[in-house]
Amino acid sequence: MTHWATLTLVMIHPSLQGGGHGKAMLREAIDMARDLGLASLRLQVRGRTGVDAFYATVGFKEVGRVPESIRVAEDDYRDDIFMWQRLD
Fold first, then answer.
1. Category of 49 on φ-ψ map: left (φ > 0), alpha (ψ -120 to 50) or beta
2. pLDDT digits (tens, 9 = 90+) for 22-70
3. What is the pLDDT of residue 11?
4. Residue 47 in contact with residue 78, Cβ under 8 Å?
5. Stretch 6-25: mean pLDDT, rounded?
6. pTM of whole model > 0.85?
7. Is-contact 78 48, C-beta < 8 A?
8. In this predicted structure, what is the pLDDT of residue 43?
9. Domains of the chain, each with CATH number or no CATH
10. Please, what's the b/e burial string for 64-85 (b: 16 or more CB within 10 A of its CB; e: otherwise)?
11. Which pLDDT score is estimated for 8?
12. For 39, which DSSP code?
């Protein structure tokens, strides 16, 4: 499975969000993966945060979901969303 990689942590400080910094950082990670000859990237996001829509803007698509698998609080469960992007 050396032809793909998983992005494990992509974060921008809240004070910098909305200025294009996160998208620039993510595009750089995608470009680096291509330069390394990888065929695809994958990542996981927490449901009901809107970040899945953000990742979709740079080409990631949802390929799976585990309902209510992330427990945020006693009465707050979120889906674990799996996203993937082909790089070729």
1. alpha
2. 999 999 999 999 999 999 999 999 999 999 999 999 999 999 999 999 9
3. 87
4. yes
5. 92
6. yes
7. yes
8. 97
9. 20-86 (3.40.630.30)
10. eeeeeebeeeeeeebbebbbbb
11. 93
12. S
Calculate the CA 46 to chain-centre distance: 9
State the sign of the Cα–Cα–Cα–Cα dihedral 8, 14, 16, 18: positive
Tokens encoding 44: 């996981």
Per-residue pLDDT, 9: 86
Collapse the DSSP code of 81 into the 3-class scheme (helix H, G, I; strand E, B; otherwise coil) and give the result.
Answer: strand
Cα distance between residue 4 and residue 26, in whole Å: 16
* Residue corresponding to tokens 């499975």: 1
Q: Tell me if 67 sits within 8 A of 30, measured CB to CB.
A: no
First to last CA, the chain: 16
Rounded-to-integer distance, Cα 1 and Cα 27, Å: 22
